[in-house]
Specification:
This protein is α/β, with parallel strands linked by helices. The chain folds into 3 domains: 3-171, Beta-Lactamase (2-Layer Sandwich); 182-413, PtsI, HPr-binding domain (Enzyme I, Chain A, domain 2), CATH 1.10.274; 433-752, TIM Barrel, CATH 3.20.20. Helices cover 44% and strands 16% of the residues. It is built from 28 helices and 22 strands. Strands 7-14-13-9-10-11-12-8 form an 8-stranded mixed sheet. It has an 8-stranded parallel beta barrel with strand order 15-16-17-18-19-20-21-22, surrounded by 4 helices. Helix 20 crosses helix 21 (578-597).
Amino acid sequence: MTAAASNSARQILTRLHEVMASRMHAQGKLDQVVETIGECLTSEVCSIYLLREGMLELFATRGLNQEAVHVTRMAIGEGLTGVIADNVETLNLAEAKAHPDFQYRPETGEEKFHSFAGVPIVYRERAVGVLCVQHLDPRRYEEIEIEALQTTAMVLSELIANAELVDEEEALGLSPTQSGQQTISGLTLVKGLGAGIAAYHQPRVQITQVMADDIEAERERVYRAFDKMREQIDTLAGQAEFGIGGEHEEVLETYKMFAYDEGWSRRINESIDSGLTAEAAIERVQQHTRMRMREIDDPLLADRMHDLEDLANRLLRIVAGQIGTAAQQGLRKDTILIARNLGPAELLEYDKRRLKGVILEEGSLTAHVVIVARAMNVPVLGRAKSLRGIVREGDEILLDATAATATVRPQSQVAEVFAQRFAKSREKQATYATLRDVEPFTRCGTRIQVMMNAGLRDDISSLALTGADGVGLFRTEFQFLVSATLPQRERQLRLYRDVLDAAGDKPVIFRTVDIGGDKAVPYLNSDIAANDENPAMGWRALRLALNREGLMKAQARALLEAAAGRSLYVMFPMVSEPWEFDDAKAVFEDQLKFLRSKKKRVPEHVRYGAMLEVPALAEVLDLLLPKLSFLSIGTNDLTQFLFAADRGNPALAERYDWLSMPILRFLRRVIRSNVGSDVEIGVCGEMGGRRLEALALLGIGYRRLSITPAAVGPIKELVRKVDLNEISAAMETWLANPETNLRTELTAWAAERDIEVD
């Protein structure tokens, strides 16, 4: 906020302080407020709309017809005012009528006004009204005017709450009774089942005073709160449970970067300068952050903004003396945690023995907290809307994050069914655990390699728990995605060495970094990547790495040094043509030569492989296979490229079928192209971890699968029930018949042989 903005806001606040301190009734105060704002901003019109019975009602106006007060009403999302309340966003228009959502209300007499600006009046994170101004002349409002309106809206929220001008339950979106069974739907962030009582992560901070009596005293309160918050974050970073130098430490380093950001603290101080209390200033900046988040399309940057808001919540609780989160108060029972969003540091504060699941109103698959939750084996459901209106503190919740649903206050029969599923799941897990040391041979005596995918240091512990044959895919990009800056070679070296140490004598296949495109990182932005219309098929993975020579050299050196005296398996992603593999291998060979020249220890063997994700590579396998030690088929990307169907688009979900003729015939052609070769060909990706799809893969000739750790046990069990001769003959028959519904046929075939599928 500029000095001019602070002066405008302070002038308004000074006059509003007098209005609110007066003994006028609430309506009289609102009438005075619109006059005050209109005069201070030299605005012909100033109006206040408040939420009543689900509609936005004109409560007070300067400049519009007074007969419209308590007559003009609009639904949420209707007209410019409704759009502001619905999106909780600011509008600033030089010509209001040009906006597609503009609606003319003749009773207001507003036809002569052109410009329009409006801000939401927010109470407990929800819009309960709208404050807007209008001018005769078409012009956009200056930033200082918008910021003055936003600050005024905060004061109005206090007035509205104290005068009970809006119904609190309606404002919060609460149902009248909040009783009976309810089902919540969302997005699966971390799969799993969990049951417990609802606990809100963040007790509400009640801001009881908005306007400051002593600005310097408020500033000192904020300084002390910042010191305490930074001390807490430093302590958390030092107590991270997942190993020194790991990815989780890097997540917390990014978190610390925000905690020490001077720009953030400066904006809070500027809000205090305008006359707000410390609590109101933090909330004012936080509201601005939320509005910015809604405008951010880049998921990585949006997640970083969520981290900043997480810190703002922490700072607000400290300055208000309400520092107890659900974690600090302690979980006394099995708990499903409820939050609008959650930062990684805050999740680490919870007792893992009691934390059985997390439900977020927001959240994304790439969020930092999801990385941490997956390592903690805590199921997470995201994008669950209106939680405050459905869930009460202490409600029983049955969370099925795998199915992307949660049941609140379940009926007894629903709870019984869930308990049976839970028990069955635990029994299955116990059964799978008994297979840990059992080698997966088929009924006909063929040994199938069942490997696991990983991306974090802590994932490697699953090798021993599941009995997987090794790590068929270690995603090295995770370290890059959670880091605020490019991870230096020494940091990469430490991670790779720790992974190899933890894996022992089991092989680990390191996929070189797959970033760029849809896995953008801010420190590697390029004009090409930024302008990608189809990022998944754009400037990413090996394409980006070969273009940034220093990036690939550093990773090559780190991997070679980490594997000194051992075997190193390196796999290059997104290979389209043989020359790309040759160039990537040359980088490693050059670094190997350099290390030898420096008398450094090097790996005993380096085995190079490629990922087949780009369909074009299948047409030149005869040229590439002689150069490879192994080939892994990445079914996730390969399938979306084959079908031209974005796997993240729900409208195309039915077109993304791993048991369709095109994908299975393609995969069969690839495996047949390797007949007579010593190159090991396997599948890595979700397809191999689903029992029905794995059955099909075995039937067309695949003998190595790399899957999620949770799928290792189920797939080992499946393998031991299969006769490869039978399933191969059946697959040949089905693939020869284009009219076959393979999913139906394969399911029936498995049922006849008592083979359980998904």
